[in-house]
Write a structure and sequence with these properties.
heterodimer, A: mainly alpha, 2 helices, 2 strands, elongated, B: mainly alpha, 0% strand, globular
Amino acid sequence: MEKNQIDPMSRDYDPSSIVPDERFTQTAKEFWITMLTYSIFVLLMIVNLFTLGADPGSYTYVLGMPLWIFLEIVIIIGMVVAQELIVTFVYKDMDVTPRGSLKK
Amino acid sequence: MENLTSAAKTTIIVVFAIYTLFQFFYSFFSRQAMKKGAGSGDFMSKFYTGGRSSGVLVTAMMVSAGVAGAGVFMGVPGYTYTFGAIWMVCCFFSLCTNFMVLGLIGKRVGIVARRTKSNTFVELFMNRYESSRVFGALSCLVVLFFLGAFAVSTITGGGRIFQILTGADYRIGLAIFTLLVVVAALTGGVKGVASAIVIQGIVMTISVIVLFIMGVNATPGYTATIQELMQTNPDWFVPKGIGTAISFAFLWGYTTFTMPHVTMSTLTYKDTKTLHNAIKVGAIVVAAWLLCLNGLCFTVKYLFPEGSLATPDLGIPSLAVSVMPPWAAGLVLAGVCGAVQSSVGGMIVSLAGTLVGDLYKNIINPKIEEDKLKKLNTAGIVVVALVVFLFACNPPALLASLITYATGGMTVAFFHTVLLGLFWKRANKEGAIAGLVSGIVLYLALDMGSKAGNALATALCLGVNPVLMATALSTVIMVVVCLVTPKPPYGLVCTWFGKDYPEIPETSAE
């Protein structure tokens, strides 16, 4: 490619000189949001299990089931809703062909 | 179980036979679709990516069913039954499968796979690591060994459920699964397997919901069951081992994308709209499966007191035959088989792709002609399926531990090589090879060491699954090796990260 001054096989270059694809910038953002959301889900599940679920003798009950089980179900449904919202409002449509771009 | 009347068995078998025949019919129908030439490109890309035109349901089901195989029907309920409610919570970590595969790396892989014209997971990352044959060969071995083990354990689980529900030898079940998968794969490639997966996923969804309703109806009420259990088995509710919970959050969540038969879906989807909708549909479908199946753990524990099950992992199928009318038990059998076939179907296509496409075509003999490749590919599918079948004829007792071992192997090999490859410009082949090798070596050493009571290995694991520590350490090793070795070539980094990149010349197979 004449456009590139640097030989494609060269290993001596400044990585920051590569113009990033805007789609890659967006996917990196989506990556971190996804990781963060999942981490919050995991944290809530584990904390709930090991605090409210720790001692069967002192369980409180909601709708006939132990509070911690009720809360786990709430967290699970909450996570499903969170996925729907994030995919709808945070993820962006893009053209995934080799030289495509973000869809506005 | 023994108390099944022969009439009931017959009904179950008839329902299952109708389902099986329907699948055969459908496979041949989708063969026609492939012949009409949907999609573009050469044989391998058509076979393994279906012309990158998969729709919402296919993409969603491929990921969901790829994860929810025999494990959610048997392995995990078995662990929950034996070791307590903590396992039920662990199982829910696979709730976000679609999100954690398609959302994390789906778009990135989609774009670079199109840029590099890659048809398989290994081929794609071989390109990222400078077409290194060493990296390619090592990845192939990891996939063949660990994914192979995973396929064996999955199909074995299905075979045992078949045995319980029909009373027939479980090898007959294995043979039927294997045959269905081979027919679907040979007639329609990845598309054949994928369209079968959609039907299987739908049948599975219906059957778990029916099973849940009928299972709960057989008890005095859902919450009454839980409260009764609280009285009789309070210890069962006590969560033991926070390390276990953390380990499985990692193994069944963060690292789902390291499994080639699941990641395959990121190579085949059509566009981002499809991808988004697949995550949305997949989230709901997986939640329904997990809530119904895990929710039944209380019912199973209540209806089958300690010692009344042949082995703990037979809880769900035993429930099906004892509380359901035969036609519904037949439906559950079809659902379970659907789950098993779709997991195994994806795995066998992935394994054959690795064997023929990656190991043979890309590494051993790049100059092979297309005609020969076609034949070899057919042979590859049959051989892989046959090997899995033969291994499965000798079934392991506790399913989940084998599955965990298999996924662990893929995790330590691919977690860093995939993530750093996708998101870090500096990742190069030296680092990748070091990361992959050290990951596997550390995993095996830590796992065997801590099981044998070695103090150092046990201490290094910090109370969590050895996979975590092996992954963390090998990631550090990979980063260090990358930093002390030269940068990857400029053109390659442009292809994987840049807006503009040099087109790959047609002759760059080397």
